[in-house]
Amino acid sequence: MNRTVLVTVHTGREAAVDSARLVIGRLVDAGLTVRVLDLEASELDCPAAEVVPGDAAAAKGAEVMIVLGGDGSLLRSAELARPTGTPLLGVNLGHVGFLAEAEVADLAAAVDSVVAGRYDVEERMTIDVLARQNGQIIADTWALNEASVEKRDRMLEVVAEIDGRPLSRWGCDGVICATPTGSTAYAFSAGGPVVWPEVEALLMVPISAHALFARPLVVSPRSTLAVEILPDTPGGVLWCDGRRRFDLPSGTRVEVRRGSDPVRLARLHGVESTGAPFTDRLVAKFELPVQGWRGRVRP
Which tens digits make up the pLDDT trace of 250-295? Predict the structure, then answer.
């Protein structure tokens, strides 16, 4: 059976391009078909790779999608992979790389694991996002990390809602609605809790709210979150994963619920990956002090 791998890369970095060429070479030598995106093909200069347009069809039929870059690169690639359910394997060439499975030092071993089929696939919850103004849909999108309703110039006046019931009114810089995957991203910076990826939940995190009750909230994955920008107040902006932007006039209502389709991530066997366990990833990425830990007492 012909096995196909799609390789994407942050071509703005020379080291990333060199790493991508190494990946492509090892995959081709192992007898796999390799695809690259048309916008990246000229810089990669790999004649053995098949060049495809950078749309959702690029990942169709691919066994896995290897992404070389930071979390931003992986979020971009998720837009291609989600419609086809293609698993993403991130190799961190950025700073934090919470979504990445391997570091660049483990690149060769990671590729060998893909060739040998030594990986599992886990599903990450997404959110579907709908914005309406006067009953008319003005945005219909999704996110892996978060959807944030943010001010444009002046402070927003919003009412937050959970499952069709009003919760509180806030004067704020914005409101973040996040997944567990996004709990270590923008929501974390705004003071939200860290949620382990296997926990199914939705988060609502106010940003710099002028209110007595403005705590981060963790709610059921079956809940529907809503943020209404009050009429006769300044409009705002909707950002999804920091990539897709929509202007929100005054009076807009933004609804967030569990996504219809997850994003799938590949998890390697036998590689010192950043993927497991999650506690170790937190310690490594945030350089948390664990000196003095002696471990569980053995009987």
Answer: 999 999 999 999 999 999 975 544 445 889 888 988 889 999 998 8
Instruction: Determine whether 71 is an active site residue.
Output: yes
With tokens 């007492």, the residue in question is: 297
The residues, ordered by sequence, that sit 6+ positions from 242 with a Cβ below 8 Å of its Cβ are: 72, 75, 145, 186
Distance CA 288, CA 121 (A): 28
Please provide the size of the chain in residues. 299
Distances in Å between the alpha carbon of 75 and those of 10, 107, 200, 210? 12, 20, 20, 32
Q: What does pTM read for this prediction?
A: 0.92
Check 71, 106, 173, 241 and give the catalytic one: 71
Measure the CA–CA gap between 230 and 204, rounded to whole angstroms.
18
Angle formed by the axes of helices 14-29 and 107-116, to 10°?
30
Report whether 129 contacts 138 (CB < 8 A): no
SS (H, E, C) the chain: CCCEEEEEECCCCHHHHHHHHHHHHHHHHCCCEEEEEHHHHHHHCCCCCEEECCCHHHHCCCCEEEEEECHHHHHHHHHHHHHHCCCEEEEECCCCCCCCCEEHHHHHHHHHHHHHCCEEEEEECCEEEEEEECCEEEEEEEECCEEEEEECCCCEEEEEEECCEEEEEEEECEEEEECCHHHHCHHHHCCCCCCCCCCCCEEEEEECCCCCCCCCEEECCCCCEEEEECCCCCCEEEEECCCEEEEECCCCEEEEEECCCCEEEEEECCCCCCCCCHHHHHHHHHCCCCCCCCCCCCC
> Which has the closest alpha carbon to 49: 104, 5, 96, 89?
5
pLDDT grade, residue 97 (50/70/90)?
confident
